[in-house]
Amino acid sequence: MRVAVLCCTALLAAGESFAQTDRNGTLVVTVVDETRAVLPGANVTLAGTEAATKTAAALTAATNPQGQATFQNLTPGRYSVAAEFPGFQTRTLPDIRVRTGENKQAVMLPIDRLQSDVTVARDRQAAASDRDVTFGSVMTREQIEALSDDPDELRRQLIDIAGPDAKILVDSFEGRDLPPKALIKSIRITRDQFAPEVHFAGELRIEILTQPGVGPVRGNVRMGFYDSATDGTNPIVGVRGPAQSLNYGGGLNGTLISQRASFSINFNGTDSYSTPVQVAATPNGQVRQNAAIRSPQDNAFYSGGLDYALTRDQVLRLNFNGSRFVNENTGISNFDSIERAYTSEDSRFGLFLQQNGPLGRRFVLNTRLSVFGNDSTATSAVEAPTIIVNDAFTIGGAQRKGGTHTRNYWLNSDLDYVRGIHSMRTGVEVQYARSETDSDSNYLGTYVFEDLDAYEARRPRSFSRRTGDPNVNYTNVQGGLYVQDDIKVRKGLTVTGGVRYEFQTHVPDALNFAPRAGVTWAPFKSGKTTLRGSWGIFYDWLSTSTYAQTLQLDGFRQRELNVIDPEYPVPGVVGTTPPTNQYLLAGDRPMAYSQRLSAGIAQTLSRRINANVLYSYGYRYSLLIGRNLNTPVNGVRPNPEFANIVLASPDAKGDQHYINASVNINLAPLGAQGGPPGGGGAVMLGGGGGGPTMVFIGGPGPGASTGKRWVWNRGLTMSGFYNFGRQYDNTDGPFAVPATLNPFYEWGPSAFDRTHNANISITSGALRNFTARFFIGGSSAPPLTIRTGFDDNGDLIYNDRPDGVGRNSARTTGQWNSSTNFTYAFTLGNKQVTSGGGVQISGGPGGLTVNPTGMQTQPRYRLNLSVNIQNLFNHAVYSGYSGAMNSQFFLQPTRADGVRRITFNANVSF
Hints:
This protein is mainly beta. 7% of the residues lie in helices and 53% in strands. The protein is built from 7 helices and 54 strands. It has a 22-stranded antiparallel barrel. Strands 9-12-13-10-11 form a 5-stranded mixed sheet, with no helix packed on it. Strands 3-2-5-6 form a 4-stranded antiparallel sheet. β44 and β45 form a beta hairpin. The longest helix is centred in the first third of the chain and has 21 residues, at 2-22. The chain starts with a helix and ends with a strand. Residues 1-21, 113-121, 671-704 and 835-856 have low confidence and may be disordered.
């Protein structure tokens, strides 16, 4: 009986305890800054404020990488919440009510205006082992301000700095037009991407983040002007050609609803013309001259964005952009006569929707939807047959008509989960494209003469013409699924592993699993050294243009007729059906893929200098190469119904070895973090599977009118990049038939092979209100294939080489170019306004550094005047080399780009 009483008492107590626990509440506190960026590592203190909640001691917790601190098993009632983070003002919410179940609360911390620089107490060794931190670079505010206001020139400058293979992402979206420079809050260049979240091997990214508007509504109006009177001389023709350009634009951005919604809207336009250069060898001698016509261009861009806080921790971002390009008298280059000109019109649009925020206590969801497309048309200036004398001259019409219309629908979604030593991410990427084209070419026919002697003898080697219906409609779906985990094995060691699966319609291979693995190790407590190695398999999607060619030129819908040794000027095929080319895709082709290995070291040499060196090796499998299934045998085609039957077959391969080295030197006064005190900007922190990432948010920048007039190292930064490598393969494209007909004998340098690539960039704001930028970069000579210039084997493909001469076995000349930009900021009037601030958080070897900039007062009206000089030293970049031994231009350039060009710009902000 006594035992039974004790058991009942225990059960009643347990039930009462369970009921009490069930009535308790959970509070999730999200800490953000004034830009609504989360603040990992903030300290949150929770204390009761009434009798029922004061009985428990105050609780303290640090926010996780998603900026959240969680308090569980709380007695329902009223509490106070205090949040603090170095560089920010401490904020207390004195009366927060906690109810049964889950409760959420956001705390916004203003910048501490009295702070200029502070280091967060994060272990240096742990920070140095974060995968995404050490092998990348972030542009300072001065470097961003020194870039061009013209979107096209801005894109060129970024590609020059990062490299020709760089992919540009704007707010995590691929395919968006570049935003106006005034809205760019950060530019980060990341190298050696290997985790399953990326598609391309060793992906090189230029990641641009924008900010629609913070604070009161601000605006700007800008204009740029260029005239060829300031150009250097084109060395190909010995004179400069008439050219002129007028750029104009403007925009507004700011807050719509305080702490909830902000917006931006911008437009930009260009009205310009240039003069084509003609280089040709004719029966009357060589021609080197500026063409007697101008090539006008009329371009217009528009864009806008809206950020809306759905809840305290869920943000919706909507962006749109559009553009229209009209180019008249385009298409004249190298050997073309002026009647080869045509007009192209291209219209593009894009709508981009992004939702970002936490799910529960441990998950963060980032979903992106893109809808974009373009409509392009082309119209020939002259409708006439074309006459080509190989590597001598081309006359006749351009034979272009019709157009292409595409619509793309992309969905990307990433889900992050952080628990203990694991930072996991899983995601999906789906790309749907729909294309319609009636683009047509060579519908009037083309004569090809092997050299000038044949032309004067009226002896063409071939006549070709496309007939039939060019209308083609098709869709393509491609995408990937992935899962990955960054495991913090110990303080200085992170192991990354995961797998990606990729799929695509029109590719029969379905077993496209791509495992990836990597190790990031910081061996020393100082965190100044990081070692990294990675391995992975990466798949390549089939180009939709390759698929479209097999639809259009299948030998039935459209026929590409070929006549060998035709009569001239009438080909002599009236009443007959000459053989046609046919283009096919191999039915059993796998998806092309590569294996990649990499190893690197990142080293902080001092507080001002950091460098890294990276080696990578990649081997590519199942590349497409053209196989001619109907090559003439003793002058006779095996299948007389067709001419060339070109099968895109997965029989090619390639490999590459690269050593990349980069160095960044920041000589700015300590504490400025790349800019003058009070003139920096703000940066937000992104975790999510890779550790902290620096994101620079634009503040007043180098035009700030405070401080000494001259500080020699104000905003002084230098960066350099060098690449030594080799890239070999045995294909020039899916329908490029090898000259030897055997891929084994085609092994040689890739068309993109450059042994050396290097660039140096220097930015300075030594003179108050003045910023200067200088860039110089170059590469060693590209490869060139030596050809006889004749159709020696009778297949009507003019790629025949001399005996014993390999593909891409010759080299042309190295290339280098330079540019500089000077900007001076004037203050207009005495009225001052307050701008939104933020915080710069830089994670990497040496710890986590915070540079708050706060709400700042600056002139209401400002005028920026700038001068941009392309090719400062007027060193021409030669191209258009002829590899045909029977050409008068054999091993000579026929084009020179990059002559000096000076553009003057003005920007008024208000």
